[in-house]
């Protein structure tokens, strides 16, 4: 970059070293850079005042950024002195020359502006482009199949005499499409600059951004690390390095590739796009293919991708290279420097380390939070301890695909894909046999993957959702045409109406009510928005059939009045009635469950008779226990109603479901993998690393909070926040007196991995950020990332 800026290089390449510790100083200052860039008062007031000298480098410094500033001043003054001479000529224009000539006839740049322009290009362009180069090389060397294809493409283009030496930019773009795809994919996953550049919503009315209202004065931002893992664009594998996604001949539409290109956020977008973008792309397209054409590499140390203050670099990254077709005698080691502690001052190189985890595209928080994925800030931490400061499974969950389930970190949430598919298929068959339709509830496994399975990939087109984040997470299915209706599964809080209305722009969001004041709130909202295209809401009235949660009982005057109010309101349309037999979890025989299903059906049929006029209503019944017996349904359903079954836990099941006797223990698809930390023979107990926040404190008919798989006499009998105590229990129906089955040391040892069946799948699932999906051989075949938030 010094060559580009000043024509004369400063020796970094020739001497193979970090001259005057400028790179080291740059990286050590990234924490401060990130802080100053985000806090305007500090930047605009403190740094520009008398206190600024205590924070900023000085041109008198002999090393680091101060030395860079001094050298830049010397270059500027020397060039200006030469330009004042009549015989001045610049054989090859450099960046400095362009800057100095930019305002020759207008208001000239100040001395500080001249220095800032040239030093910024060096600071912003040198290390970030090096990061992009290094990340691409790392990805290729750690993906042998991809690297082999790159080598083959290079060889074929060279044999066809399509490449110059060195390779030209246009040649790479025209003749090496797979290599270009590799570069794009590397930049997507490892963007060199993940800085947050805020934008302030205008006054006085704020602004609607992507369907979400942002109040005036709120600052919002985007982040390339997050945007470029958006599952809406990169499904089904946004975390996977797969260059083929960028190629038309790999089955990708030209339109989708154009959308990915347009959404690329590596260099920013709009009027503030990186001015060095074209230079960086040229370097990548020329240097990378020529490097692999000339050299073979082995990875000595993979290192890690670190983000500090909004800038990324590769730490502890080393390659061993040799010329192609040459004996690797003279080996060059290419190493990215590591920032270490300052031994003299005792100052540790603390860094602001950021980390993002993909959630489906619409996982956007309420205004002004507009991120398309979960973005986690890990605080000030040394980058060398990155892997200690966040859940290892969150960093690398895709890397466990192909591993045995017992190789997973503990505790982990494990799903049996064959069991899930079997459970879903069984309910689909029962629903079809009963002549009803299905509306799955998405609150258990909040993910696109299982929702798609529950809907039969579009066979059924309705769901129930309990949170706004679930609805947002479902929007990709609505865009595909798989999903048409989303029922918000509880009486809506008043503060959510405008948010639900925004979501109605993407799919048909329906409301559930059980109180006239809820209807009044909806009516007032509609009255205030008469200028918009708000359509009447589809409304379900919730009935209480004995579970005593939400809902109105049959025979209630309030129910009659609510029906009348709904019928007379222009803001809503009565879609039907909804009930939920939550107390069916307390049933212990199939007959008890069947009786409650009959109560549900009779209740909604009775409510439908209270509605005047000729209309077709949807009557929605169900809880997972009653859903399990829908195949026994014998009730006569009138032609003027549609009977709908809703359930959420049926793909996974749990110990509470097993206790109803309508399913078997083999129908449980969830296990929590835990590890024995200690054993206490004196009290016949063992300690595991799964407690309340991994299992929940839900109890059930089976004793304990989680049952050890394969050991019916052992369960989690006590818990603290992170730890559980395995103790001996009397399993239902168990009459064993075998001593070895009841002795802790005969069953558990320190370091053992144990699987636990859980009492309540919904609450346990909510505790985890990654679901590990296994096949019939207990090998991890996929990972699902659930939607989080409310």
From TrEMBL:
Catalytic activities: D-serine = pyruvate + NH4(+)
Enzyme class: lyase
Molecular function, one GO term: D-serine ammonia-lyase activity
Residues that hold heme according to the record: 274
InterPro entries the UniProt entry points to: Ala_racemase_N, Cyt_P450, Cyt_P450_CS, Cyt_P450_E_grp-I, Cyt_P450_sf, D-amino_acid_metab_enzyme, D-ser_dehydrat-like_dom, D-ser_dehydrat-like_sf
Cofactor(s), names only, from the UniProt record: Zn(2+); heme; pyridoxal 5'-phosphate
GO biological process: D-serine catabolic process; response to toxic substance
Keywords (A to Z) from UniProt: Detoxification, Heme, Iron, Lyase, Metal-binding, Pyridoxal phosphate, Zinc
EC nos: 4.3.1.18
Presence of the UniProt keyword Iron in the record: yes
Any one Pfam family match given in the protein's UniProt record, by short name: p450
Residue span, D-serine dehydratase-like domain: 669-775
UniProt family annotation: Belongs to the DSD1 family.
Identification of the protein by name: D-serine dehydratase
Taxonomic lineage: Eukaryota, Fungi, Dikarya, Ascomycota, Pezizomycotina
